[in-house]
Structures are given as structure tokens and as C-alpha cells.
Amino acid sequence: MTAPDLDETDRHILDLLGDDARLSNRALARRLGLVEGTIRTRVKRLTERSLLRFTAITDHRQHGSPRLTFLRIRTDLASGAEIARAVSALPDVRSTIMMLGPFNILAIALFEDENRHAEVAMASIGAMPGVLAVESAVVIKSLKYNERVAKLNLPHDG
Description:
By secondary structure, the chain is α+β, with helices and mostly antiparallel strands. 34% of the residues lie in helices and 19% in strands. It has 5 helices and 4 strands, in the order αααβαββαβ. It has a 4-stranded antiparallel sheet with strand order 2-3-1-4, covered by helices on one side.
């Protein structure tokens, strides 16, 4: 995967919108010392190139007390990408990351209770062909979490 060609202005726009997506084009222009039309054109281009997307980030605690859980998954190398796609499709899984190391997939999930956690970790993921191991780490307290890394919300019913 090649890195997108972004100049300093594009990076500043992305940083400012990453901190507050509600900033208007006028406010961005004022902060960056540019005209509003330039900002509008750049934001449109970044959006069209899928480098910028606007979404509301909600706190997962709005759903009560879901258990934020990190699932480290070790697979055989031939099945890793296929398993990662299957894990991503599970409704409890909010983020799936392929990585190097002893575990090649990290899934971040929100579980309503221990029974659902066990069902997904053991019966769904653990039973997938090519899965060699699944380890769970349940978050007991979050001191700092950057929502920009992995948006955590529960799927809507319906």
C-alpha cells in the first residue's frame, strides 16, 4: 500500500478536523490563513479520495456496561486474511487489525456479557478453520482512549 500524497496543508486540515469535525470551512481557513474556497476544494478532494470521512463518534458506555475486549488471534499464515475478514463480519467486533508477531489478528469487541464473549471467542472464532489460538483481554478501566483509532459503538437493531 502506498502512502497518499498529502502536502502540509492537507495534513493540517486532517489534524484540525480530527480534533473537531464540526469546524466550518471558514474556521479552518481562518486557522490556516487561507481562503474558504481553498479549504472547500481540499476537503472535497480529501473526501473523494477516501482520506477523510465525517462520522459521529459515540461513547460505548451509552449502551450500559458492555465489556470492551481485545481478542488476539493466531492463525496459520495461509488463512490469516480470510479469517480476518470473517472476524470483521461478526457484529460484536468493532475493529479488526492484521499485525505481525505471535498473534496476527487483533479484534476489538464489545460484548453484552460473559456468555456472549465466550460464544464469540470460543464457538465462533475458535472454531474457524485455520485459527490456532484465541486470547482475550477484558478492559477493566480505560485511562486514555483515542476514538480516532477505533470507533466503538454497538450495531443498531433493525
